Amino acid sequence: MLVVLLLAATAAAFALTQGLKLQKSPILGTNVQPVFSPVCECDKRRATIAFRLRKADRLDISIVDGERVVRTLETGRSYPKGRVAIEWDGRDDAGRVLPEGDYQPRIRVRSRHQTITLPNSIRIDVTPPVLQDVSLSRRVLSPDGDGRGDTITVRYRLNEKGRGLLFVSGRRRALTRFPRTKEAIVWNGKTRGRPVRGGRYEVQLAAFDPAGNRTARTAVIPVTVRYVALGRNRIRVAGGALFPLRVSSDAGRVRWTLGGRSGFSRPGTLRLRAPNQKGRFTLTISANGHTARAAVFVREPAR
To answer: Which of 175, 199, 225 is the last residue of a domain?
Structure first.
């Protein structure tokens, strides 16, 4: 008789187990944020845990490290059928930021007396990436569209995958699209599609990892935007005499006008002849739509 009872109990337990296996899970469609930084000042300082509830129920939701509960998020809260989304700030029940590592959400469905640990782990990462080997292709650019020196390229490496940000004089001008350990960012010397004015600009680089941890900006790297630059803007010369003028430009040639005369020359040291008459004249040097001017003061020729 005892043997019969044992066999019946075993069969019942087996049937119950098989029945539970055939039942659909009360939770489906899980979507758990894989990594975040609870200390970053960014939109990733909280991890989102989302799933769909097959039927309305009361849930206990916690975060576990192995089998140890490190944070209780909900206790017996009623949720309707459908999507459930909650956030975790990476802290324990005492409000302390937990150590870096992998954690998992655990959900107890009260009506089913069933506890489900989601396989999707959440990693806490509070260590920012490290920028390495930052270099610029050039320190002078001329975004005039002639294909010579129109852009600068900033190259760098990271000790982990991350996205780079390029700042020019304090304003963000570029953001890389994908997290990588090695990247190059190109700045075309433009804002809102228009070339910036000539002058000195300060270039800095920063980066952030998938968790949102961000590096400090690098030291300032000075860059000069130059279209046409003159070695001096006030020239004193005797009437009819030759005078030198240094002209810097990446253009193949520049056009000059002075006292009703004009001509073309290659950038470098120009040697021009002053007007014969005494007075103040304006020397204009232009290239690719950009102009620089110098005042020429002509005195009486020496006798």
So the answer is: 225
Q: What would the pLDDT profile of 144-198 be if each residue is shown by its tens digit?
A: 988 889 999 999 999 999 999 999 999 999 999 999 999 999 999 998 889 999 9
215-256 pLDDT, tens digit each: 999 999 999 999 999 999 999 999 999 999 999 999 999 999
- The model's pTM is 0.78
pLDDT at res. 16: 43
Domain match, 119 and 32 both: yes
Last-in-domain residue among 225, 258, 279: 225
Same domain, 209 and 234: no
**In-domain check, residue 264:** yes
Nearest-angstrom CA–CA distance, 89 and 242: 75
Asked if 219 and 247 sit in the same domain, the reply is no
Domain span at residue 285? 229-299
Q: Which region, left, alpha or beta, applies to residue 206 given φ > 0 means left and ψ of -120 to 50 means alpha?
A: beta
Q: How confident is the model at residue 22 (pLDDT cuts 50, 70, 90)?
A: low
Residues ≥6 apart with Cβ < 8 Å to 166: 154, 172, 173, 174, 175, 185, 187, 203, 204, 205
Cα dihedral 112→114→115→120 (10° resolution): -80
CATH code, domain carrying 261: 2.60.40.10
Report d(CA 9, CA 20) in Å as an integer. 16
- For residue 33, give the nearest of 15, 16, 47 by alpha carbon: 47
Residue 280 lies in a domain: yes
